[in-house]
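Quick look at the format.
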Amino acid sequence: MFAFKRLIAVAGAAVTLAAPAHAAVPAVNARAFFVVDDTTGDVLAQHAANTRLPVASITKLMTVLVTLEHARLSDVVTVRRQAAAVGESTINLRPGERITVRELLAGALIQSANDAADALADYVGHGNDAAFVAMMNADAKRLGLFGTHFVRPDGLDAPGHVSTARDVTRLAQELMKRPVVRALVRARSATIAGGRTLHTWNDLLGVFRGLVGVKTGHTGGAGWCQVAEVKRDGLDVYATILGSPTRGGRNADLAALLRWAFAVERPAWIIAPGRVYVRVAAGYGRAAIPLVAAQPLLRVVRVDRPLVERVLAPAAVKLPVHRGDRLGEVRVFSGQTLVGRRPLVAARSVSRPGVFGRLGFYGGRTFSHIGAWFR
């Protein structure tokens, strides 16, 4: 068995010999940010990602999660006075009004309505806000959001009500597994009970290609915040930004982070279909046998991190060999990390010659050696 290494790098959608130049992570005027590839789990960029900060209405993602775990979309909620009285962003719920859970979810997720979030908490907590908040914190612990602590279901500023850019991203990833959430957060507007028309606060929705959500937030204490998911060009990226000083600055910085992420990553055939990785000697004068990968491997990779390919195969093989016989392996590394491996198999069959064929081969070699003596 022999092995050799080959340095490779990624550009476009295939493994090539040179990586393109790329820009550094853009400068961001915010307290924290976090960018991660949802497919691979690779963290692409971060700043103060584990710092506990107020997160404003991004809180409503946890309110929605707890609601979905304990209520049905068709359940009808009777709005209580406390929920209807909450201020700032609302859908103007009235005390005693009856409205479905699904419509309240739309109000909380699309228009970021505080009264919708508080009405959901009141319904699920059976009128006990503290009980609902305890459910929120229990789910945070279950999800491993150890930098998170909730005090309110709506995200209005309150002492001790904090999360982190990393935790917010993890929460968004969990919520986006639910079809009803995915449908609501990608809506720019909707009409619900009472003829109410909802409008999103997500300025990048419908503007930044591939953006499918997730949630914005703003309070005086939290600044301007957002967690976003973008799916395009074979990539799935989440980015969270917390504590931007202005709405426009948040939008510009978040868009810059997302553009950078899509420039620094590519889906690539790190193990290519049909490519001959090595040829091994077959003996008896037969042509060398080409080895190809049993299956190709397409993976999202960083264009700024060259890969190392290691091929392991025998110097020669015994005949017969049948097409598809496993004869080696190719492994691809990023630094010390194995990012992919595939068996190498014979691309064609080679039979073992019969007795007369083998005699002819050895006889030919003998005459060739004798002839060499007289040269």
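Next, a different chain entirely:
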Amino acid sequence: MKHLTIIQHTSADYLGLMEDHFEGRRIRFSYFRPFTAGGKVPEATAISDGLILLGGGPWGSAGERIVPNLDAEIRLARMCLMLDKPVIGIGLGAQILSLAADGGAVATPLNFEVGMAQRQADDALNGFLPAQFPHVVYMRDRPEPPAYAKILAHDAAGLPALFQIGRKAFGFTGHPGFKLAMAEDLVMEFEESPDNPLPKFAALGRMKQQIEDALVPIMTGLIQLTGLMENN
């Protein structure tokens, strides 16, 4: 069985709906929580079949609130890229992936956005990425992918919503498996939260089925391209 290493930056932000897709394919995963007492960023030798870097709520990588252990996570992601191991970055994780790949990150205020993203390449995610799919962002700062990255989708502002680095690394600025409860917990977990989140909660609740439906082909393409169903 394949095994993924997952780094959390807050207890509220986890794989969400993606968990069921990995478990259904018998892909195991372990969460690492560097923000807890005694928690730490894993060593590169602990990454067996892939790395997932999750979002950080109000933590960012370029502005006024930089996540602790940023440098260690950049080094870890860069090592995985060098070893051709799959890397999936979501939100803050996409910023870390961009920085590890010699791209950048741009300082922006904490943003909670519920909208749609548009596919930019017909062959994105092995042809499985929907032409339009839910784009739910809860993030401070944003990634600026390197020039060689392939932009697979744009958000409503024309900024990268999904990008690919090499063969097996993908950065999502929104969380493809986001749940309403995750947004509610993020607002409660931190003293800093987006202004007037209630309308976004309502929009996210209405989008639940769309998120679930779009995640099916997204996960199919991701797992194919990352080789997570292949035998060693």
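The mean pLDDT is 96.

See the schema section for token definitions.
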